[in-house]
Amino acid sequence: MIIVDLFNLELFFPTNHVPTRYLDLNSRSNSVIDLMFLRNGSTKLNNHQIHPDLHLSLDHAPLSVTIAIEDENINEVKYSIAKNSKEEANFVKEVLFAIKKINISDLSNISKLEEVVNSLTSSINFAWNKNSKCVKITKHSKSWWNKECNHALNNYRTTRSLED
Q: What pTM did the predictor assign?
């Protein structure tokens, strides 16, 4: 029970209550000795079954649990700057300008340092918001897709030629 608690598991009971162990000896009766431990509090996994018809020549019946795999819909929005783009160059230029214009002549106390850091943070955020674009990430998004892929796809759509 300590191990079960350690892994946040719980003993579940099958949907069909039949023996899991089948003996060839007539003097001993069949019994249930196989147990299924699943994640504690999981109502979706509380459906395991014993398959006595599949034990064949084995002395144990297989146990199974159905795990539902739902269609995952990922709709996430993020801001991004394309690598080697005009926007990336502008972003870097604006951040460098913000760093160069930092006044570090008076960092005599924590509040002055915080003021400088907050000013730099604001400048970087402004440059990011100005140069980045909103990208919607879905389950169909591909990290390898780039401008060349877009160009090739548009070529194909225009010509309908397999070469393109």
A: 0.42
